[in-house]
Design a protein that fits this description.
The chain has 78 residues and is mainly α. The chain is built from four helices and two strands, in the order ααααββ. The chain has a two-stranded antiparallel ribbon with strand order 1-2. Helix 1 packs across helix 3.
């Protein structure tokens, strides 16, 4: 599975019109974990693999495609 960044996560959510609460429901992660990942807060430079996997799975199942290490494409981006 591709390693995504917090900026890609936030961008993908924006493309989908997905709130952090929606992401929380889709991943089972806390809103604090999602916020920390997206904002790159100290201590999240290397988030747990399961956190990144849950976020990536939720976004790709909603139609997002990650491009390289910085890009995002999705249903509303076209």
């Amino acid at each position: 599975m591709a390693r995504i960044t917090g900026r890609q996560c936030a961008g993908a959510r924006a493309l989908l019109g997905m709130t952090q609460a929606d992401m929380q429901r889709a991943t089972g992660l806390s809103s604090g974990t999602i916020t920390a990942f997206e904002n790159g807060r100290p201590g999240t430079a290397r988030p747990l693999a399961r956190t990144v996997e849950a976020i990536t799975a939720a976004l790709t199942s909603a139609g997002i495609r990650f491009i390289g290490s910085t890009g995002v494409d999705g249903p509303t981006a076209k």
